[in-house]
Write a structure and sequence with these properties.
Largest sheet: 7 strands, mixed
Structural class: alpha/beta
CATH topology of the largest domain: UDP-N-acetylmuramoyl-L-alanine:D-glutamate ligase
Number of domains: 3
CATH class of the largest domain: Alpha Beta
CATH superfamily of the largest domain: Mur-like, catalytic domain
Number of helices: 16
Strand content: 15-25%
Radius of gyration: 21 Å
Length: 425
């Protein structure tokens, strides 16, 4: 795989997916360079492995002896490095296209769906590693045991998290396709649920007749898209519900998905043992420590109304009598605006909600939505909510207003987890 490549350059190397491919290249003893708009925990790890990371996108970052370019889906066509690469006729691949190249050479298990992809991928990775199947794994988080988003396997198996944004998952060829669920998200691109379903229908049609589609065929949002299937449909809801270490009904469903895949691979017994010991993944109901007053600090990546709701519900189930403080950082102006009413209803089980500024990520602020609008919407369902933009002030408030056994949960796909770091005793 990529045998003829001696040097690869990654545009957006700090991304959780792109960095996994960079690590793969480094482990194959290839030269790796890359660029990103800011330093972060991910690209710092690339440096430690021997990669060269440039902060900022410039033409000079790209040398003429580069054989291959991989770029993040967030990179625009007019990116200076990408333009130079095309002028120099260097082979360029989007991150999904590069995943597609790997998937063609492996027995690929692709995990798709609006919610639960990362947790289900992590569960399956742990199961297959414990069953001595030695899979190669690319995941949108850090696995707990490996403390990494990439596992270099020695077998034919490739486990990959398949994202629907910009239909990027259509680049992946899968032998087993998992669909956890289908829901309204990435509406800045898809516009509506119907278009999301069309993309999933295309993905389903790609799975060969000797392949498998693991899903809930009774789910009304999935049922209609299965008409395009040639592969065998496997209903994960028929699997047993295990008692897990991680809280929440959604995690029990994720484990059912993994049991269904394990049955196909004939490792169900090992799967049950492994799943019962599963302790989670980075930024998914992750325990971070305690404050000086012994309040418990957790962090979660939830950034969609459905995810927020199930995570708070799971927190309430785990801590039925404790006071729960939720610090939520909305992710993307478009998502916040389009799903405002759904977000408003998602915080009912929290005792106190603090809303930080919207994390822009790939978007520009067009002034059409503000975090304060979300606060006003939430107030209709939960009056205990306020807005604060300054992370230091949020941390100060929490230090002063929380006590022993209170629960502090930072939540969102941006940098809100930094508040938890400020709170540790």
């Amino acid at each position: 795989m990529f045998e003829n490549i001696k040097k690869a350059h990654f545009i957006g190397i700090g991304g959780i997916g792109v960095s996994a491919l960079a690590k793969m290249m480094l482990l194959q003893k290839k030269k790796v360079t890359g660029s990103d708009i800011a330093a972060n925990i991910v690209n710092q790890r690339i440096k430690k492995l021997g990669g060269r990371v440039f902060i900022g996108h410039k033409k000079s970052n790209l040398s003429k002896d580069t054989d291959m370019i991989v770029y993040s889906p967030a990179i625009k066509d007019d990116n200076l490095e990408l333009v130079k690469a095309k002028r120099l006729k260097i082979s360029t691949y989007s991150y999904p296209e590069a995943l597609g190249l790997i998937s063609k050479e492996k027995y690929t298990i692709a995990l798709s769906g609006t919610h639960g992809k990362t947790t289900t991928t992590a569960m399956l990775a742990e199961v297959m590693i414990s069953a001595k199947k030695s899979p190669t794994v690319i995941i949108g988080s850090f696995l707990r045991k490996q403390k990494d988003n990439f596992v270099s396997g020695k077998s034919k198996y490739f486990i990959v998290e398949a994202c629907e944004y910009k239909k990027s998952f259509l680049s992946i060829d899968s032998d087993i396709l998992v669909i956890t669920n289908i829901d309204n998200d990435h509406l800045d691109y898809f516009k509506n649920l119907k278009n999301i379903q069309k993309a999933f229908a295309q993905l389903i049609s790609k799975v060969p007749t000797n392949g498998f589609i693991v899903c809930n065929p009774k789910d009304s949002k999935i049922k209609s898209v299965l008409k395009s299937a040639k592969a065998k449909i496997v209903d994960y809801t028929k699997e047993k519900k295990l008692k897990l270490e991680v809280p929440g009904e959604h995690n029990i469903q994720n484990a059912q998905v993994v049991l269904a895949v394990a049955k196909i691979l004939k490792i169900q017994q090992q799967a049950e043992k492994s799943l019962k010991k599963y302790l989670g993944v980075w930024r998914r109901f992750e325990y971070k420590g305690k404050t000086k007053k012994d309040a418990l600090i957790y962090d979660d990546y939830a950034h969609h109304p459905s995810e927020v709701q199930v995570t708070i519900k799971a927190t309430r189930e785990k801590f039925p009598k404790q006071k729960i403080f939720i610090i939520f950082q909305p992710h993307l102006y478009s998502r916040t605006k389009l799903l405002l009413n759904d977000f408003a209803r998602s915080f009912n089980q929290a005792d106190q909600v603090i809303i930080a500024d919207i994390y822009a990520a790939r978007e520009k602020d067009n002034q059409s939505i503000h975090a304060k609008d979300l606060v006003e919407a939430i107030k209709k369902y939960n009056p205990f909510v306020f807005y604060e933009s300054d992370f230091k002030k949020i941390a100060k408030y929490l230090k002063e207003n929380t006590s022993k056994d209170n629960i502090i949960m930072t939540m969102g796909a941006g940098d809100v987890y930094e508040i938890g770091e400020k709170l540790k005793g």
